Amino acid sequence: MSNPNVTMEPTYQNGSMVASTSKVNTVESNGHIDLSEPMMDGPKPTTVHPHNPQLGPEPWFTYPTPTPSQLEQDLPPYDEIEGVPLGLVLDRVVRKGYGDMKTLLGQTLPSATTKNRPRHVIEYAKSQRQAVLKYLAVLRWKMAVDIDIPGPSTASHPHPLAQHAYNANSHPTPSFPTPHSIGESSNTSPSAEVISGKGKGRATEDDGAVMPRGKVTDAKRITHFMEHQNRQHEQAIGHVQHVAKMIEALRERNPDLLTAIALLETGTYSRLPTALTESFAPLVPLTNRKILRTLRKLNRSLLYRLKCVDYVPPELIIRAVRDGKVYVAGGGNHGWRASLTMVANGDGGEDSRWWLTGIEWGWRYKGRGVHDPGGVGGFRKVTGEARQGILEVVNEEILRPREEHGDIGDNEDPAVATDHSADRKVDAPFVRLVNFIEHLNLTQQLEALYLEAMRLNQGRWRSSLQVEMKRDESVLIVRYWIRPRPTAPPNAAQPKRGQDSRYIFGGTLSIAVAETGKPSMLNDLFCGIQTGGVIPSERVLNLRLDVKWEIGEAGSAGTLKAGEVMDSSSLRIDSSNLSLEDALNTAARAHATHLLQAYTSSLDISRLTLLPLKPPNLITHPASQGLNDEPIDHYAIPLPSKQGDSALKITVSPFNGYIEIADETGNEGRTLRARMATISVNESKLRMTDDLVRLITAIITENLENQMRQLGWIPVRRLPIRYQDLPKNDLFPASSVFVPLPTSTLHHLVAKVTPAGIVFELLRLVRTPSDGGVMKFAIGDRSVLDMARLKARRPRGSVDRGVEAAGATVADPTGVNALLSAVGQDTPASPSESSFEIANRDLMDMYIFSNALVAQTIIEQQLKDRSIPYTLQYPPITGKGAPKSSSAVAGMIPALCVNTRDLLKDARVAEVAMPRVYIQIRDWWKGHQCQVVTVVQLRHRPSLASAATSPLPPTVSVPSTASNSDSITLDPSSSIVRFRENDISRCVPSFLEEWERLSKVLVVAGEVNRLNKSAPFKHLKMLAFDLCTATLSYAPGYSCSITYTPSDDSYEVSFSTTTGTDGEVLSESAKNPHEMLQDLFSHKLNELSKARNVKISLAKAFCELLCNTLPILLTINNLRSTSRDFPKLVVRSISAYRLVWDVDAKRYALDVSLARSNRCIVSDGSIDTLDTSCGPLTPIPGFEQHTMGIKTEFEGGIAAEGAGEGEGEGEGEEGGQEKRKESERLVLLDEGRAILCPVHLVSQVMTSLAAAIETSVGYRG
């Protein structure tokens, strides 16, 4: 029938096999390459006979030979990553050799001996040679298997695999290639195209994609292909064996005549058995009426079974019977619902049995919405695989009828069974259904609680819960407050078996599916009456979720012991509001409250009571169902605060069981301290009181420090002393605040927090030499300051004060306690006041008082160092000198009273100053650097001129040399001198220095006042006095100002003119003749002050000099004013003057000099041959006659004046003597070359001699 020259071979197109109609199996006809024969050059045959032995003559057994491309697609791909490049091996060999050589040359050979060095070199060479040989062996093997095979072209040569498989005449060279080295491709097969470059060629497909090729590669791919074929063959064999078994089980109908006839007549197998045709023959559809009728019958049958046949327990509620189903419910309002129907028994019997068709759950989570899984919105149907699994178990195991043999059921009470042994015992599938579904429902709730516990463990309860689910026992165990087990001593009891010995727990909640209790006999009686004496084979278990609360090791304290079972009535699991968090919070909060009461009951309340009217107390809140936002019980310790109520809250966290100490202020520093105290308390509950006291102390100290900063102070916690010196003196940085006082850098006001309250001290640092010679600080005197006494002064208003003798004792180095005792008495504090809270006013008063007290102490120490006795004099309560300030410190700052002789150490000063000197502390109320004012009242009030002649201000202020800010003031009205000193540490020596300087002016002023009272100095008057300058009138119309300059410790004298005695003002041209010689007079005054030992005669000597030289200078001025050129004045000294005339080339001179006893010597200048400053002098012609004539003239005038007086008054012996004295006023010296005359006559003598000299020498001016 078929042409023998044409073969019908199927071809592969698009994955399916089709028949090929090609006459000639060529490349051009069907697009496939015929691999039955190799394609050679020359004429192509028209017919091809198959050479494959698998091909038979039948067309349906023939299949095409695959093309090379199809073979390539069938083989699995090869990944180049499977090969290892030889480049990595070579790199490893080279690196190892270089490293070994470096070690050899750098470490091994230098330390080796000359004898051992060749051995190390040989060993290195051997190891390197072995490594290179191994690499060469691998490389030679690679080169041996990596042989190039001449690649056929795509048009004329078959594929190498096809040629190897189907061309028996070709013999390819065997080669087992390896992947290329140095990162090249793993293709070691010959290239189909010529590729230039380094490395082997690659086989490239028509589309340009590079395919990995090579002998090893192809071998691996063929191996994978054969393994896959073997697996397919094994699967095919297994399938054939399965089919063979199935065919053996089928019953083949014996062919008979009737079947053959029916088949011929009808064309179908109408005589087949119904069992075979039932599944294929279409059924007659039911009508609606028939369906309804069938459902009514089924409903009646269901009602009959429920009422008359089956035992229905009271726990199962029949909700409805409709649509061929019974709708039942159980487990309460939020339990479960189910639907059942009846089906025929599977064993072929006539009786039917119950069949579960659906189930619904009614429990829901707390807080879920209508659309949330498990939320509010009714019962939820069980669907999917869960429903199918429940139905299979219930219908196959639970509801299947069981035969009863009178034995007691699995869940039946033996006592009940004995009492009703005569009754009929029936199967109870509904009881089993209720027990199963109820257990399943509770198990589902337990799983929901387990998921909630896992969610809580990832939230706020993180690391505080341990959740364990025992599904075989239907128990959920939740352990809270988990923490590592502390290191126990060797003899401690070991934990129970089954517990993790690494952790301890605060408590355990065990939620289990348990039976509520055994059924009572009364219930059984009612059931028997209801069922007519029928005894069910099973009983209802009445399951529920039972909660057991047990105390753990970490939660035991006080009366709570580990292992104690607590009352869990408040931990009921409600299926309508399912929540493990509520039960856990309720248990944890109650447990935390018990622990808080146990921990706080052992606290020392007396040490924690800071406010008298607000002791620490436990604040409780009503119990609530597990709410995180509800306040928890806490132990409150009220703290003193000016911003409002503030307290430390001590709680036991319900989430971790640890004690938590919180500060309500929200201050970051205080919060950190509270956290540190929390850590310490949790480490050891025994030191809870100490930790709280330390925390409260730190808070009070910080509040006090902030209060001081608000007042503008600079408080510190440490002093520049050794760290170990503070604890030795009961001073700790955590509870002490040091405030440097502005008066002294070595004094500090110390505020220390003690159990009794805040205590204030005055601390002084002293400098002590160290071992290295460097000065260091140490704690010196300390004095306690009583704040209660300071407060007591404010409401009382006044206290008894007086003058106390100053003196320090060993117990009271600074006399502070004696001072406080003098200014105030103890007054009991108000019960509402807290000793841990200091008002700003009280704190400021204490600071001011401390600062003033330091100033007083420094002054007293200066007086003690100089052995100067003193007394303290406080201001009076009322009257003159009483303090006007309302401050409590106003009457507590005394003045130091010192005797003038003891202070100044000079008896002469007593004649100038009053007997007492007062040292007062000023500016203490400002709270800054205090000042010291030393008050000295002068004994003699200066005799000043009238206000019209010399107006003076009421107070004179004079700068001092101590500092630019200090000053010395004088009140002329009261003669009070005040010395103000800013540097308190030098107030006493500074006053002494200033007084030493001012005493020179003061002595002059006092002497002037004393001289004024004597007859010879009646004309001497004090015009002005301002401590540094004394202005006096030494002659009518002439004044002198004596100024003391402290900088160079010298006097400066200046002269001026004033109004005359009759009130007339001198002419403007009239000048004080001393003005031109004021430098000489200043020098003379300084010379007198330094040369004379008795300073009290300084003023007298200087005033005598002024009075005696005034007529001389006035006469000289008159002589010079009447003459045009001469005489010339030559000042030889402060008390010697020379008048010079130059006439006819000759020089004449008249010398005038002061002598003792207010006398002057007028002489011829030529007799002084030692003084050549004026050149050669010519004796005055007739000078002796002139002096004799002047003497005779003056004596005659005096005699005539005496005679006139004698006539009027009478002569006597006394009158004669007086005349003789007056006659001796003029005395000739040096045979008339000089004349000695009184000062008041020098003007006349000089005038007469000058006129006589000009006449004798022939000078006409």
Tell me what the structure shows.
- Residues 215-328 form the Mediator complex subunit MED14 N-terminal domain.
- Residues 170-181 have a biased composition (Low complexity).
- It is a single chain.
- With 1261 residues, this protein is an alpha+beta fold.
- Among the domains are: 85-109 and 123-138, no CATH class; 288-400, no CATH class; 604-685, no CATH class; 1123-1196 and 1222-1260, no CATH class.
- Helix content is 35%, strand content 20%.
- The protein contains 28 helices and 44 strands.
- The chain has an eight-stranded antiparallel β-sheet with strand order 27-28-29-30-31-34-33-32.
- Strand 32 (956-959) and strand 33 (967-971) form a beta hairpin.
- Helix 3 (86-111) runs antiparallel to helix 4.
- It is elongated and about 215 Å long.
- The N terminus is likely disordered.
**What is the mean pLDDT?**
76
| Helix-residue proportion | 25-40%
Radius of gyration, rounded? 68 Å
Number of strands: 44
Largest sheet: 8 strands, antiparallel
Q: How many distinct helices?
A: 28
Low-pLDDT runs of 5+ residues are 1-56, 147-210, 406-410, 415-422, 795-829, 943-954, 959-965, 1061-1065, 1207-1213
N-C termini distance: 193 Å
Question: What strand line-up does the widest sheet have?
Answer: 27-28-29-30-31-34-33-32
Shape: elongated
Strand content of the residues, in percent? 15-25%
Structural class by helix and strand composition: alpha+beta
